[in-house]
UniProtKB/TrEMBL annotation:
<protein>
    <submittedName>
        <fullName>Short-subunit dehydrogenase</fullName>
    </submittedName>
</protein>
<dbReference type="InterPro" id="IPR002347">
    <property type="entry name" value="SDR_fam"/>
</dbReference>
<comment type="similarity">
    <text>Belongs to the short-chain dehydrogenases/reductases (SDR) family.</text>
</comment>
<keyword id="KW-0560">Oxidoreductase</keyword>
<dbReference type="Pfam" id="PF00106">
    <property type="entry name" value="adh_short"/>
</dbReference>
<dbReference type="GO" id="GO:0016491">
    <property type="term" value="F:oxidoreductase activity"/>
</dbReference>
<dbReference type="InterPro" id="IPR036291">
    <property type="entry name" value="NAD(P)-bd_dom_sf"/>
</dbReference>
<dbReference type="InterPro" id="IPR051911">
    <property type="entry name" value="SDR_oxidoreductase"/>
</dbReference>
Amino acid sequence: MAKTWLITGASRGMGRELVEQALERGDRVAATLRQPGQLDDLAARHGERLWRRALDVTDTAELRTVLNAAFAEHERIDVVVSNAGYGVFGVAEDLTDEQIDQMIATNLTASIQLARAVVPGLRAQGGGRLMQMSSMGGQIAFPAFSIYHVAKWGIEGFYEALATEVAAFGIATTLIEPGMVRTGFFDAATRVPVSGPYRGGPADRPPVPVEQLTDSMEKTVAAIIAAADSPEPPRRLVLGSDAWTLMTGALRQRLADVEAQRETAATADL
């Protein structure tokens, strides 16, 4: 049976690819992006099955208005994919206050507000899928990418709690955790040159070269669609062998660090 998707950040990268693959298989898509004209070619090809609206996700009032319209103008929204976001490479000390505020507003606060805005609509229709684009960067961290990790680790914690809150309403949540996917993400990311004290250190490395990106965007999106179709989608969808390797390594080390403190932890017991 054909689904109806609501996808934010649909202008490029995995958001655009997700819109394309969903339409190609006969689904309907409600897509939001800053410039709806960027999807004119898909609208010409798929007609009324593509619904488009302009949206800056950091404008919470506008976000609610557009999302409410999507639910009102479609019989049902089966899958919501919160995808809007971007990256900034730079040492934490070197970033401007504005860069930090905008990163958190776009990648974290907007994602939280989107979830809050769509849960009533999903609940009213008896359930649905809510998928949040995260990253392996929600479980691991690299130098010179700290504020991006703030957003991803933050949204991971938010969804850990949200999943339990909304499960009784038939709403299944999934955090999508890809590895290094060949999209325009790294090309579009802002790069802040490292200041003197950090030169030659761990943060003084070039961003990941395109030739080192190992994961296929087309296959990654196909796996997201397959998870949305699953009767029991995972709460975390790890995509890419690089993501699995790095995440399991980091989680094992974190667990080992905690387990080693069992006796000292008990010293604080009443």
